[in-house]
Amino acid sequence: MSSAAAPPAGARPRVLMLSPYFPPAEQGGGSVQAVLNLTRHLRDDFEFVVATRDHDLRGTQPFSAASQHAARQATGLDIHYLAGGMSGARQLHSLLRQPFDLVYLHSLMAPDLGLWPLLCRRWLAAAHGPLLVAPRGELMPGALAQRSRAKRVYLALLRGTGLLRGVQFHATGSDEAQAIQAALGGSAPPHVAADLPPPQLPATETDDAPRRPGPLRVLFLSRIDPVKNLGFALKVVSGMSCEIEFDIAGPIGNDQVWADCQGLMRALPAHIRTRYLGAVAHAEVAPMMAAHDVFFLPTLGENHGYVVAEALAAGCPVLLSDRTPWRGLQSAGVGADLPLDDVLAFQRVLATQAAMSNDERREQRARCRTYAQQRLTADASVAAMRELLTRLAQPNARIVSTSAGQSGGR
Fold first, then answer.
1. Which CATH number fits domain 216-375: 1.20.120.140, 3.40.50.2000, 3.40.50.970, 3.40.190.10?
2. What pLDDT was estimated at residue 373?
3. Where in 235-300 does DSSP place strands (E)?
4. What is the phi/psi pair of residue 154, to 5°?
5. Segment Disordered: which positions (predicted)?
6. Tag placement on the chain: N or C end, fewer CB within 10 Å?
7. Whether 91 contacts 40, CB under 8 Å
């Protein structure tokens, strides 16, 4: 990747960010924080314009005018909240007719903010610069395994109709880069640049008081859908002999998955107690993490895992599958990342956590906070993302050179 200087003050490239969810949305998952953090770090280098849905995940009502205004004030961004249906499609079509140096999609699968912009791009090819797509984990194997046939047909149609011709892709790590190439075919690699952490880690109160006696406090905090794999977590705890309080928090993204999980919860032995806490506002995440002994997320695949970073920053050790970028947790002494075919390994970790002394637990929580600070140092990641967007937003980037091996088009 060649070096590119940041644009001079007063000549910021204009970048249109299309994200299914953005503040005041609270339940849209890690992609909300990914886009928000990017704009926070790079707002002095680029003029960001954001287009997003006018409601939260599974929300039935649009955001109020007051909450939209508050989000614009808090972020300092020009945010366009799109209505559903044809009204929103017309809004986005009108917005795409404006000149932008780069159009940056944060979904490939969303019909309104993935497919529709690709169609508009075909019709308005001369109206804007290059198009960059960050699939945000949508092309990871675990995600593609859900409704697999429909997704494979959709991707084949995108390729076959030429809608991906000249489109470039952003992966947040080598695993996602491989997944994108496997899903889309061809050999041209995506751009790889890590997602950016918050400019400041969330502040949490350090509690060095001895832990109260009682059950191991385990937290699952994520959207309830097949990829997050809550059912596996319930099966793991069902075989534990120690007392466990298992709290489940997050929006219900799939009704059938939640119904299946409720059945598993009803069958748990008496010494395993569960609570569903519902969807959680982002401001409540850090204190909730700090109040638990283990954060448990046996996900089928994550391209980043912002919630993992939030857990560690709050001093909460994590128990994960080995399908996230968060690896080597055992050697760091901050948790474990394990294969999903080894249920006993997950149970051994929970048993070890339950048997810890107060001193051991206090030392582990301090390691988690230190690890989060070190892992989330942003300087190199910010520089890499700035360089990528600057290079793509240059006028000569409007003609994509496939010989450079950077085009995602097929």
1. 3.40.50.2000
2. 84
3. 244-249, 272-278, 294-297
4. -60, -45
5. 191-212
6. N
7. no
Please give the structure tokens belonging to residue 217: 């406090």
pTM of the predicted structure, to 2 decimals? 0.76
- The residue type found at 292 is H
- Nearest Cα to 139, choosing from 326, 28, 301, 257? 301
Instruction: Taking the CA atoms of 264, 267, 271 and 275 in sequence, report the sign of the dihedral they define.
Output: positive
How would residue 260 be classed by pLDDT, with cut points 50, 70 and 90? very high
CA 122, chain centre distance (Å):
28
Cα(282)–Cα(33) distance, rounded to whole angstroms?
10
- Determine the residue type at 80: H
Span 180-193, average pLDDT = 85
From residue 144, how far is each of 116, 182, 219, 328, 384 by CA, in Å?
20, 11, 26, 25, 28
Instruction: Quick: pLDDT tens for 384-402.
Output: 999 999 999 986 454 333 3
| Terminal C-alpha separation, the chain | 21
d(CA 280, CA 394): 40
Q: Answer for the pair 82, 88: CB distance below 8 angstroms, yes or no.
A: yes
Range 338-364 burial, b when 16+ CB lie within 10 A, else e: bebeebeebbebbeebbebeeeebbeb
**Mutual orientation of helices 358-375 and 306-313 as an angle, nearest 10°?**
130
Please state the domain extents for the chain.
Answer: 14-197+378-404, 216-375
Are residues 364 and 317 in contact, defined by beta-carbon separation less than 8 angstroms? yes
How is 81-148 classified by DSSP, letter by letter?
EEPSHHHHHHHHHHHHTS--SEEEES-SS-IIIIIHHHHHHHHTTTSS--EEE--TTTTSHHHHTTTH
- SS3 string of 158-171? HHHCCCCCCCEEEE
Same fold, 14-197+378-404 and 216-375: yes
20 Rama sector, left if φ>0, alpha if ψ -120 to 50, beta otherwise = alpha
Q: pLDDT digit string (tens) for 271-294?
A: 999 999 999 988 899 999 999 999
Residue with tokens 């609570």: 275
233 phi, psi to nearest 5 deg: -60, -40
**What does the alpha-carbon distance between residue 251 and residue 139 come to, in Å, rounded to a whole number?**
22
Class of domain 14-197+378-404: alpha beta
